[in-house]
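Field log, afternoon session.

UNIT: design team B
ACTIVITY: writing a sequence onto a fixed backbone
BACKBONE:
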């Protein structure tokens, strides 16, 4: 997949992924139009180890096992925190609704913590300058 570098700083680059009909003819993840056929641009953060500058068109790839790691962090960890909070609240013989509220509180804390921790994390990297 291809992208345009918008900003480059501290070994990272803010890139705008090009999602057009031409991109679908080659290797394309399809994430930009999953669930709809709208065309447009998605802006993401990518590792910039090759030193691409603003305005460069680059080839972008996803790191090995990136989707699996992202799914683990964004779905499994919050789900486990929710379920473990319900189990702990149930062990203290709280009512069903109080257990559920404890689970929601743990879920909210887990999602907020992940948002803060993963703010600058990326699984994209710039593979080459086009």
């Amino acid at each position: 997949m291809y992208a345009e570098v918008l900003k480059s700083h501290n070994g990272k680059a803010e890139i705008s992924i090009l999602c057009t009909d031409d991109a679908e003819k080659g290797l394309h993840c399809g994430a930009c139009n999953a669930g709809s056929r709208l065309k447009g641009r998605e802006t993401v953060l990518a590792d910039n180890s090759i030193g691409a500058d603003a305005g460069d068109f680059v080839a972008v790839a996803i790191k090995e096992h990136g989707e699996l790691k992202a799914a683990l962090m964004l779905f499994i960890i919050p789900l486990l925190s929710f379920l473990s909070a319900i189990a702990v609240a149930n062990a203290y013989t709280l009512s069903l609704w109080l257990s559920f509220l404890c689970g929601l509180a743990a879920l909210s804390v887990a999602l907020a913590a992940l948002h803060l921790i993963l703010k600058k994390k990326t699984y994209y990297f710039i593979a080459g300058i086009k």
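LOG NOTE: The mean pLDDT is 83.
NEXT ACTIVITY: expression trials, pending approval
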